[in-house]
Amino acid sequence: MNKSFLSLMVCVFLLSSAGVCTASADQLADIQEKGKLVIGLEGNWAPWSFHDEEDTLTGFDAEVGRAIAGKLGVEAEIVEGPWESLFAGLDAGRYDLVINGVEITEERSEKYAFSDPYAYIHTALIVRSDNEEIQDFEDLKDKKTVNSLGSTYMELAESYGAQAVGVSTLDETLSNVLTGRADATLNANVSFYDYQSVHPEAELKIAAMTKEASEVAIPVRKEETAFLEAVDQAISDVKEDGTLETLSVKFFGEDITS
């Protein structure tokens, strides 16, 4: 009985008993045998992942994923999906991992194992340029915000007493703020800077920003220890050979990897 067949039997058992396929017998071996690493990401969150003028999927996370796959000796197969579906896809075994600017949180760490951080970001509180009422996170109490459904940004807004509404993309959140349908939104500072570079006419500003940087890392299923070790080694390799810094400067205009 080869490893692929054994993994399939494990998957069938898990599907029949729990409704999801949460693990393989040896995920790293399966990935290497298949010759591909399946990566889940949004695909519409520039500059982390987006389609260029030729409709090619690129961006910091997309290229980091391809670089990690290369270090593992396999091809990257990138599957796009909305933010709110990415962790469900990871749980169900549709993705080997998720690379989507995921911040490490205590709640997520209870369910997933995280790689070593590959980037560091601050959360920006974004409002209309003429908004003088919201100047800090504490001012969000009883205000309306829009954010990606189930994101850390949505949770942070709610923790300050905001009425947080979930949408799918950064452009949607900023459009809601611009038109006055929402008072504010929270997002990665580097994502907003990228948006500003494309839309310099947009009457938006950062009212406040978190002081401590959040760690961005790659979640995998907790039982995949050998796979996680291989991912950590790949991250270390792309740091050491300069690939990670080069990609960061290319897509963000600065090094956010250290």
Report on this structure.
The protein is of the alpha/beta class. The chain has 2 domains: 3-119 and 216-252, Periplasmic binding protein-like II (D-Maltodextrin-Binding Protein, domain 2), CATH 3.40.190.10; 123-211, D-Maltodextrin-Binding Protein, domain 2. The chain has helices spanning 3-18, 27-34, 60-72, 83-91, 106-111, 152-159, 170-178, 189-198, 225-240, 243-252; strands at 36-41, 50-51, 57-58, 75-80, 97-98, 112-114, 119-121, 123-128, 144-148, 163-167, 185-188, 204-209, 214-216, 219-221. It has a 3-stranded parallel sheet with strand order 4-1-5. The chain is globular, with a radius of gyration of 19 Å. The protein starts with a helix and ends in a 6-residue tail after the last helix.
Task: State the main characteristics.
258 residues; alpha/beta; D-Maltodextrin-Binding Protein, domain 2; 2 domains; three-stranded parallel β-sheet; three-stranded antiparallel β-sheet; disordered N terminus
CATH topology of the largest domain: D-Maltodextrin-Binding Protein, domain 2
SSE order: HHEEEHEHEHEEEEHEHEHEEEHH
Termini Cα gap: 45 Å
Structural class: alpha/beta
Strand content: 15-25%
CATH class category of the largest domain: Alpha Beta
Query: So how many helices?
Result: 10
Q: Looking at this structure, what is the CATH superfamily of the largest domain?
A: Periplasmic binding protein-like II
Measured as a percent range, the helix fraction is: 40-55%
Strand order of the largest sheet: 4-1-5
If classified by CATH, what would the architecture of the largest domain be? 3-Layer(aba) Sandwich
Contiguous low-pLDDT stretches (5 residues minimum) are 1-24
Which sheet architecture does the biggest sheet show?
3 strands, parallel
Q: Into how many domains do the coordinates divide?
A: 2
